[in-house]
C-alpha cells in the first residue's frame, strides 16, 4: 500500500524491492517465508507485499546465519518478536544475549581446533597417539590395537563427530589396512 503525495515513503515492499534492499535473492526470501521466518500479505493480483519491518528481519537472519545459528534457532527467536511493530534495538539485544553462551562455546572449540590443526594434519591418521583432536593423550591406546573410532556425519548440522568405539572383528570395525564399510 503506497502513501500518496510526492516523496512519500511506501509502507510495503515488493519481493524485488526487498531482495534489492537486503541483498538476498528473491528465491531465498520465498524460502524464508515458507520456513516461517518472514511473512507477507498477498495483493488481489496474488503478489507478495512485505512490511518494512521484514527488511530488519532479513538482516537479522543473514547475520545470525553468518555466525552459525541454525534456522530453527532463528525461527524460535523471531517468534518472540512483536508482529504489530518494528523490533527495537532492545528486542534485538535480548535475542542476541540468548545466543552468547553458545557462540562463546563455539569460539572456544574453533580456537582449540586452530591451535591443534597442524598436529592433526601432520599425523595423517586420527588414531595415532599424536592426534590432539580425537585422541588427546593417546586415550584410545589403552583400549588395545586396531581402529577405535569411525567418523560419522551428523545429518542435523553436517558436523563430523567420532562414533562409538568398535572392537576389531566386529561389524563396522576397520582392521589395519582395510576400508571402513560403506566408504
UniProtKB/TrEMBL annotation:
Ranges for region Disordered: 162-183
Top-rank taxon, per record: Bacteria
Gene: soxR_1
The protein, known as: Redox-sensitive transcriptional activator SoxR
SUPFAM superfamilies xrefs: Putative DNA-binding domain
Alphabetized UniProt keyword annotations: 2Fe-2S, DNA-binding, Iron, Iron-sulfur, Metal-binding
Pfam families reported for this sequence: MerR_1
Source organism per UniProt: Actinocorallia libanotica
Entries under InterPro entries matching the protein: DNA-bd_dom_put_sf, MerR-type_HTH_dom, MerR_fam, Redox-sen_tscrpt-act_SoxR
Location of the HTH merR-type domain: 12-80
